[in-house]
Structure formats: structure tokens, C-alpha cells
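Incident log, support desk, overnight shift.

02:14 A customer reports that sequence design results differ from what the structure should imply. Their input is reproduced verbatim below. On-call engineer (initials T.W.) acknowledged and began investigating.
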């Protein structure tokens, strides 16, 4: 049984968020990979762009930060230099400045630090699953995939438990700001100039800014060192301290991306179990599968559909010329389904190895800071789920986000049989 069959006609409009409500337009991506791997798109809302859809091309170009810059924005939208500076996180900074900021942040998200949260994650998984599995039918995204990253976010940041629903609501409003299910301030359906200096051009950014400032004032005054935020604020090896603007922008990024990407990876994994029943048995057998399953689930999900770069000089590829100043989109959702890189890419193979997927920004300096946390949360959640159920099946159609930037299943109705 196939997990999911794309329905686009092979000529989908990649600039339209509505295109993605039925899931990524994989027929279009395949046509571009096969026929036009360096494809130019005109865009009525801004400057046109090049689409990079093959795995090898994305990997090659992602390494060339001296040619393809992150410093002009990572989304399709055009931004003024003032907007870029006001909104930027370390994702929108090129080397060598990027590494200076990354060093300040990376100590809080190293594999060693994240592994100290293993027991916390397992305890949360046990609590969540023991509660939700009392029901036979439920929305797996809302009841499981959304709840674990939300609660784990609180442990990582050291925020009060009662603040978490509000934080996740604001994070959703930021990163899913094109989906009316998550915000009243839908980016492409209203004027957003008032908030153009805020992260993701959203009023939720201003609210999270203020929350971050008050949170750190309280933690500093009380000497509270729970979570990892105090590590970020501590001086780095060079004695430098992260600025208030850098911290606030990173906090917004952590709340949004740190929650949503793991949520949609878990949701995609649950979807896979529904449509490939043998997968549950493989998880129940355990062993080496736990070394490979998390990355395969994350490859299948690919929550970041694309990242944009801007060419700093002319660049030749596939007989065409990318001009200096052109926007270039790396379509990770396409690269992670490229038959040239992955055998049977539309099947979930929990034993797939090697699995050098692009979901973490492989090859470049912008390797995902939260990859160790994402892998750990996915692994532990499915470990705890596997021995609690004997079957899981979809009871209705999945619903995808209305977004061409973040890909994910926002609703997944299922029915389970308890072990």
C-alpha cells in the first residue's frame, strides 16, 4: 500500500500556499527534477526565483555560502535591508559571522546537553500516551504530535508549564502565518506592513519579544538556571555575550521552529504507521531500527519545505546562468524524494542506511541546531508507542498546512488498538 499519492498535475504553482493544502506537489517536483532541474518562476508578488529540485544540486549549492547567501532572507518574500536586519536570526547570517553567533547558541543544543533530557522526554511520552490511548479514536496530530514538543519546549527553555499553550499558539501564528487555522493575520490575505520589522512579519513576534524580555529578567533576578537559556546568555569562549536583539529573535525561532518541526515529523511518522502496517512490527522488534528510524521519519516529513538563498555572483548550472542578485530556492521536499539519491523514496524504510537527507540542512554551515533534540524526541515517542498498541489506522483524510514554507499534517484522525 502506498502511503500517500500526490494529486497535483505536474504543473502546480509553487508560489501559492493553496497548492500545498493537499500536501507537497510531488508530481511537479518530479517533473522539474527530470526535465528542468534549474527552473525559473515569475512571481506576481515579488521578484521571481530559481527552483533547485535535485538532491545533488541542493547539496552542492548549500555548501557554497560564498556564492549563495542567507543574509537577504530565507523565505520567498522580498525584504528591504531594514527588514532583514530587524528580523534576522543566525539562519540569516553568512559565515564567518554565522559561526560566531552559532557558537553562542550551540553549547545549549549539543548532543551531550540534549541527552541529559532523555528521562524528561521519556516521562513526558509515557504521560501523554497513557492518557490519550485511553481513547480508541482521536486526532493524532493534536493529541500526540503537538503535545510532546510543546511540553518538552518548556523543559528546554525552563518556562512555566502554564505558559506553554500560549507560547505554542504564538509559535504557530509565526511559522504557519499563511494558514487561517493558526492565525487571523494571514500573510498573503491582508496588509502586514505594520509588523514588517517583526519575525515572520507577524504580530505574534512582538508578543514573543516582550515575553522573552520579561522571562529572562525574572530568571536573572531569581538565579533560575533551569532549561538551557542561561547557557545561551552566558559569555562565549571569546567573552562575548549575545545581544538582546539576537536573543529575542532566537527565542522566537526556538518557539516556532523548535516546536513545529518536531510536531510535523511525529505526525508524518504516525501517518506512515497507518499506511504501512509492517512498520509497527519493525518498531516492536526493536534493535538496530532505533538507530535509523528517526532519520527516516524526519526525511519522510521534511518539515522545512524550502530555504531561499540569494546569488552573490553569476553561477552556471544545467546550461543556464543564475545572475547575481537572483533568488534561489532549495526545495528540500523535492530533494528528499529524489530517486537519484534515495531508493524507493515514496516508501518509508525504517532501516534506510545511509540516510543523508536534507531535512537538517546537510552540507552547509546552517546545519539544524535542534537536530539532536528532534531525533531524540522522535525516537523515544515511537519507542513508547510501539509497545502500547497493536494497530493504528487512519479514519479520515489527513489535512496539510496551508504553507509552501513549512510542510506538515495538521490533522490526522486515527483509530488504535491497544496492546
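02:41 Re-run completed on a clean worker. Output:
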Amino acid at each position: 500500500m502506498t502511503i500517500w499519492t500526490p494529486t497535483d498535475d505536474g504543473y502546480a504553482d509553487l508560489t501559492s500556499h493553496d497548492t500545498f493544502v493537499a500536501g507537497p506537489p510531488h508530481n511537479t517536483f518530479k517533473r522539474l527534477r527530470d526535465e528542468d532541474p534549474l527552473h525559473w518562476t515569475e512571481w506576481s508578488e515579488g521578484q521571481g526565483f530559481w527552483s533547485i529540485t535535485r538532491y545533488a544540486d541542493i547539496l552542492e549549492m548549500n555548501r557554497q555560502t560564498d556564492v549563495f547567501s542567507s543574509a537577504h532572507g530565507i523565505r520567498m518574500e522580498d525584504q528591504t535591508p531594514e527588514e532583514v536586519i530587524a528580523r534576522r536570526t543566525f539562519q540569516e547570517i553568512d559565515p564567518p559571522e554565522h559561526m560566531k553567533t552559532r557558537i553562542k547558541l550551540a553549547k545549549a543544543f549539543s548532543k551531550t546537553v540534549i541527552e541529559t533530557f532523555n528521562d524528561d522526554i521519556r516521562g513526558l511520552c509515557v504521560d501523554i500516551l497513557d492518557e490519550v490511548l485511553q481513547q480508541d479514536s482521536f486526532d493524532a496530530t493534536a493529541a500526540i504530535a503537538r503535545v510532546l514538543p510543546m511540553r518538552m519546549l518548556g523543559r528546554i527553555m525552563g518556562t512555566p508549564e502554564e505558559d506553554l499553550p500560549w507560547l505554542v499558539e504564538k509559535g504557530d501564528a509565526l511559522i504557519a502565518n499563511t494558514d487561517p487555522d493558526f492565525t487571523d493575520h494571514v500573510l498573503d490575505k491582508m496588509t502586514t506592513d505594520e509588523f514588517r520589522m517583526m519575525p515572520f512579519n507577524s504580530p505574534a513576534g512582538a508578543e514573543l519579544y516582550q515575553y522573552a524580555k520579561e522571562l529572562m529578567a525574572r530568571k536573572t533576578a531569581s538565579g533560575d538556571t533551569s532549561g538551557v537559556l542561561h547557557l545561551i546568555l552566558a559569555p562565549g569562549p571569546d567573552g562575548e555575550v549575545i545581544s538582546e536583539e539576537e536573543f529575542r529573535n532566537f527565542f522566537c525561532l526556538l518557539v516556532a521552529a523548535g516546536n513545529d518541526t518536531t510536531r510535523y515529523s511525529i505526525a508524518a511518522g504516525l501517518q506512515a504507521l497507518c499506511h504501512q502496517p509492517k512498520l509497527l512490527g519493525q518498531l516492536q522488534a526493536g534493535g538496530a531500527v532505533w538507530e535509523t528510524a528517526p532519520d527516516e521519519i524526519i526525511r519522510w516529513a521534511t518539515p522545512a519545505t524550502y530555504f531561499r538563498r540569494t546569488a552573490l555572483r553569476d553561477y552556471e548550472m544545467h546550461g543556464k546562468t543564475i545572475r547575481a542578485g537572483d533568488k534561489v530556492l532549495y526545495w528540500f521536499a523535492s530533494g528528499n524524494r529524489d530517486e537519484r539519491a534515495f531508493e524507493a523514496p515514496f516508501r518509508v524504510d525504517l532501516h534506510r542506511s545511509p540516510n543523508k537527507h536534507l531535512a537538517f540542512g546537510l552540507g552547509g554551515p546552517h546545519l539544524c541546531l535542534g537536530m539532536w533534540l528532534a531525533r531524540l524526541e522522535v525516537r523515544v515517542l515511537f519507542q513508547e508507542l510501539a509497545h502500547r498498541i497493536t494497530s493504528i489506522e487512519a479514519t479520515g483524510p489527513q489535512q496539510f498546512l496551508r504553507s509552501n514554507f513549512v510542510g506538515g499534517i495538521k490533522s490526522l484522525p486515527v483509530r488504535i488498538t491497544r496492546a
